[in-house]
Amino acid sequence: MSLRPVPRALRASLQVLRPSISIQQTRSLTRTTPTPQFNPTGASPPNRTTTPNKATPPTTPTPSNGYRNTNTTNSANGTNNTVETPIKRTENISKTGLSDQPLELDDPTADRIDWTRSFHGLSAAPFPKEAADILLAEVNPDEVEIKPDGIVYLPEIKYRRILNRAFGPGGWGLVPRSESIVTPKTVTREYALVCNGRLVSVARGEQDYFSPDGIPTATEGCRSNALVRCCKDLGIASELWDPRWIRRYRAQYTREVFVEHIVNKRKSKIWIRKDDPVSYPWKESK
After folding, report:
1. 42 CA to centre of own chain
2. Nearest-10 crossing angle of helices 215-231, 156-167
3. pTM of the full structure
């Protein structure tokens, strides 16, 4: 049996189709068809592809009024566990105050007087003449000081000495009548002066400060300032509020000098006592 020759046109068409067939076979071989599994219930198989969840370590919230102390410990599996312990921070008393409200008695009696509100003994009777002579004695000019701006004053410790001579140590006291008020620059509080069990005067003291670290010192200065103001009602060193006495004192015991500030080199005029030299931070200008 003889074979007929393939026509030239048919041979050319077969050569064109052969590469496409091989490409389709190659693509079919690269694809992976999942093997169907027999399910007797007829339900669709569950999706077994899961994403592992990363465990999130618990965190300790940072308190609004404290810092966190971080302590690192090693666990059994070799990982580091961080334990954060809150530490309470001291509040800024320049913003929150001192919370020193005076104690109020629930049942005040004659033996238990509530000096935060009571005016017991005020103007009930004059003090004995011996005490009055000490309180009303003329101030010694040698004990009076003068500030650079010309204000004369008596150091507060000398008011305490006068009270001790008049009433004896323990015969007088200063009682707070309110809590301390702390502003951004000043501490103020109300006090009452009690002598021999009687209220004598009520005054509010004040003292400036420059940083929160100086507030405790300012509270003590506030107390001394209130004492000086209360002593005015007893007539102690009353000359310091007499304008004529002040002018005579300045003319006799003080002088004005031109000085230069050692730090900023600023020149000014200050008051000093005649028996005192110019001291730091000034030096006398020539």
Report:
1. 74
2. 50
3. 0.61
